[in-house]
Design brief:
The protein is of the alpha+beta class and about 250 residues long. It is built from five helices and twelve strands. Strand 7 and strand 8 form a beta hairpin. The longest helix has 24 residues. The radius of gyration is 57 Å and the shape is rod-shaped.
Length: about 250
């Protein structure tokens, strides 16, 4: 009887040991790990504003470039300017119309903008004025003066008319009027007739020097249009003349 219990006890011990071992070999549940941190947000893309003032200048004048950027650590302007601060202004003096480009870059990428400065073309020079005989007439032509109550061409008048003839030959297209003038003495009718003789005497002398008669007309004003209004010989001498003017 005692021997029959021993195998049973041994069997019980075997089962107990197995249960103990089985219990010790059970896997513990895994410990949950912390979730990974979220990725950082992407860097902001740079922005840039860029202006030129004034937008148009004359050659030799300057314009002001002004800019503002965000999220940029490298800013440059081309042409000519180069690296600049993230915001600021600078003065440029382009010799020709120029488009300036600003480029702003940073961790988030790059951005650019343009501003154009137009250089106005200088106006063309005025055309060279072509001198005409009328432009030179006043400085080149001289009057012929007469003695009292005379219509004869004096020696000084001959020299003056020679100069006039030389000028008129340079400009064969010139047309002139010879006015006959007198001093205040004598009647109106008499002086009108005397002025006519004087004007025609000047014309005849110029024609004799080679000036076409068709280029010359005459008129007498007598004493009606004096050059000097004082009543003395010096003044009267100024009024006794054959006066040359351009024809209209």
């Amino acid at each position: 009887m005692i021997q029959s219990r021993r195998p049973l006890q041994q069997l019980i011990l075997i089962f107990a040991s197995a249960a103990f071992l089985f219990a010790g070999c059970k896997h513990k549940p895994p410990v949950a790990s912390a979730p990974p941190p979220p990725p950082p947000p992407p860097a902001a893309k740079p922005t840039v504003t860029f202006t030129a003032s004034p937008m148009a200048v004359d050659k030799g004048q300057s314009a002001k470039l002004t800019w503002t950027t965000t999220d940029a650590n490298n800013v440059s302007i081309s042409p000519e300017v180069g690296a600049v601060t993230p915001q600021g202004s600078t003065t440029v003096t382009p010799s020709d119309s120029t488009t300036y480009t600003i480029t702003a870059s940073g961790p988030g990428g790059s951005a650019d903008a343009t501003a154009r400065v137009t250089v106005n073309a200088p106006p063309p020079p005025p055309p060279a004025k072509v001198s005409t005989w009328r432009d030179e007439f006043g400085g080149a032509v001289r009057d012929a003066y007469f003695d009292y109550d005379k219509a004869d061409i004096r020696s000084d008048a001959q020299q003056a008319l020679q100069q006039d003839a030389d000028f008129l030959k340079k400009y064969p297209e010139a047309r002139i009027v010879i006015e006959g003038h007198c001093d205040e003495r004598g009647s109106t009718e008499y002086n009108l007739a005397l002025g006519d003789r004087r004007a025609n005497a000047v014309k005849a002398y110029l024609v004799n020097l080679g000036i076409p008669a068709a280029n010359i007309s005459t008129v007498s004003y007598g004493k009606e249009k004096p050059f000097c209004s004082e009543s003395n010989e010096a003044c009267w001498q100024q009024n006794r003349r054959g006066h040359l003017i351009p024809a209209q």
